[in-house]
Automatic annotation (TrEMBL), chains A, B:
One of its GO terms (molecular function) is L-aspartate:2-oxoglutarate aminotransferase activity. Keywords: Aminotransferase, Transferase. InterPro entries: AspAT_Ic, PyrdxlP-dep_Trfase, PyrdxlP-dep_Trfase_major, PyrdxlP-dep_Trfase_small. It comes from the Bacteria. PANTHER family: AMINOTRANSFERASE, PUTATIVE-RELATED, ASPARTATE AMINOTRANSFERASE. This is Aminotransferase. Pfam families: Asp_aminotransf. SUPFAM superfamilies: PLP-dependent transferases (SSF53383). The lineage of its organism: Bacteria, Pseudomonadati, Pseudomonadota, Gammaproteobacteria, Thiotrichales.
Amino acid sequence: MSLNNATPEALKQLEQTLTAEYESLKSQNLSLDLTRGKPSSEQLDLSDSLDGILDGEFIDSAGVDTRNYGGLRGIISARQLGADLLGTEVAQTMSVGNSSLNIMYMVMLNNYLYGCRGKDTAWGELKAPKMLCPVPGYDRHFSITENLGIEMINVDMDENGPDMDQVEALIKADSDIIGIWCVPKYSNPSGATYSDDVVDRIAALGKIANSSFRVMWDNAYAVHDLIEDFKQLANIFERCKAHGTEDSVWQFASTSKVTHAGSGISFLSSTEDNLKNFEKLLGVTTIGADKVNQLRTVKLLPNMDATYAHMAKHRAILAPKFDLVLTELNNELDSQYATWTKPEGGYFVSLDTQPNLAKTVIAMSSEAGVVLTGAGAPFPYGKDPKDCNIRIAPSFPPTNELKVALSVLIVCIKLATVRQVMS
Amino acid sequence: MSLNNATPEALKQLEQTLTAEYESLKSQNLSLDLTRGKPSSEQLDLSDSLDGILDGEFIDSAGVDTRNYGGLRGIISARQLGADLLGTEVAQTMSVGNSSLNIMYMVMLNNYLYGCRGKDTAWGELKAPKMLCPVPGYDRHFSITENLGIEMINVDMDENGPDMDQVEALIKADSDIIGIWCVPKYSNPSGATYSDDVVDRIAALGKIANSSFRVMWDNAYAVHDLIEDFKQLANIFERCKAHGTEDSVWQFASTSKVTHAGSGISFLSSTEDNLKNFEKLLGVTTIGADKVNQLRTVKLLPNMDATYAHMAKHRAILAPKFDLVLTELNNELDSQYATWTKPEGGYFVSLDTQPNLAKTVIAMSSEAGVVLTGAGAPFPYGKDPKDCNIRIAPSFPPTNELKVALSVLIVCIKLATVRQVMS
């Protein structure tokens, strides 16, 4: 039925039917959670052999006793895994602790307080440092940026990545733009993988931007494919070499959603000059990361073949959940109500309601016992300009719970939409 | 022989004998290291059961799946261990990652940039924030402080801890003094354990200092006793309650020199108001620490009895090394050459040469293949005002190497002293 052409009576009847459905779901006192991109316990089980995997052997391939202090760049085999994941060289890849978010914060802090090439390159010395934020994006990137007092500018995204015309025009117009956040593969939450052209244009930004400009390339979902025949992400490191802009990019990855989510190891890669500059701060704040856990991780994932084989097991668990989400949405909704992404990897389905309805839908779901990520979370300052985006995270709940949660979400979307058309 | 009363001929002959000994040691092409307080591999072996200790059980005592994201304060059993180590309450104790140094940095950064109670309490807003630094002290505390641009003021130490008359007078004279670094038990490097009176006077500082003043109480050697019948450190938390100054103290500890040095877990404790304020920053920079490793640690060390039993094994390895150092120094040197501490715990012997000789001795040792901590390292800005302090770290080398390294150090001290008397 076409909502716009429906008679007031038909709409009223639809509204009543949906309200009854909603009230019936509410009366079930559900308590379900679709908020965060957490692996399910079934996925975590895949890596349980980590504990005990060393079998008493704590010395790494280079003869380092991983149990003792030291080694700011991490053990060489873990750095190799990071380099392979990111498509960089081991010499310019570090392996650090369990939180890639933490290392992104530290890189941002270093550039803000101390500067990538001395105090007069510090972002904090600029009149109004600004960071470009493709939206919707990852809320925790935005929290770091806001926390440092760096202004955030929204940039539109489509299925090929950020709108590069916008990005280039903004940078040319304002030399206080000091960086851009990117989740280049299966972008959080839209699932977009940046096209080759977008990757190349991002690599070229170092030629038009402030010399302290940095691309924060968070390749969080580098191997998190939901289909076997996935789209390759272009290698930004290679593209930077072609443009002579290697200093302008910091790459990050982790095994957080590969092994155990709270106990992964993380990686960062950039040029030797950038790493040396960063280590001046990092070396003040820590003696080094947990190298025993790095060794465990490379025992489980000694190379990319092993990593892909491991990720295939994740896919077997995750893909049916994404299929369920897409099937339910397809069966129950059409573009009068919402549009949504069909991700080939990553952890989210990004759904857009009609304008001005996301907050309402999320509040209604919450009342019915289904918690969704807060409205606006995937936007700087928590402000979704159209109030339409809802991030669905299907990984954590078991399939039966996921199905119930989706039915609640769908009824809320329908009811809120119909009420808006009626008003 | 009394150097000051010796004839020039006698001194010359002594100098020649010592030079010959030194040259002979030099010709052995030694390569020994007494620099850092690292556990030996024998000590690290004591905790090798950590890997595999979970036996497939990753759920903690509170039902938390340690493998997944979340839990900024850490798992409850690890927090309990931290509270027991520090003599505080579990509710106000957090367990975090592998580096207590890192968490000290983060607390300092938070107080500096954001303030313990809002921006106008930020240390960075003060004209000239200053930190009191009992010396000799821990070089990495000083690096953090210098890195943040906080001025450091030396405070004298004796066997009872910092000179509290100095501390109180400095604080009363300057409201820009925002904190003091303390290693209250087996202070690094002097080995001093603060007396009850000193602990009480430190707890009372909150009554005379700036309200953003913080004691950074780094109880790094809380259970690192070299004798069985060790001196108890007074409970600063209790003393603060008596003075109503609970907000003025942050306590830190870790298992770095209890289990595996690079893979320990760390603890911080303060008031709920302080923790809440700190979590506003910490929660932006990480989703949480490695909880699996926290669970492993409490499996190995479920309570203080188990911890003391474990530390007794460390003692059995460490005490003979310290005995060797003290015996060699006693046999070969007297106060004409040097004075040194006789620690009952911790990781160092702190030795004072005659004034103006530490740099020379350290350089001579290095030439003979024995690396010592850089001269001045235990002082702010790396400047030992008397150029006399040498930190000896006997834990890492095997006993036979330690003995050779000491013989080199002793000859260097003798030779440098005699040459100075002659000049």
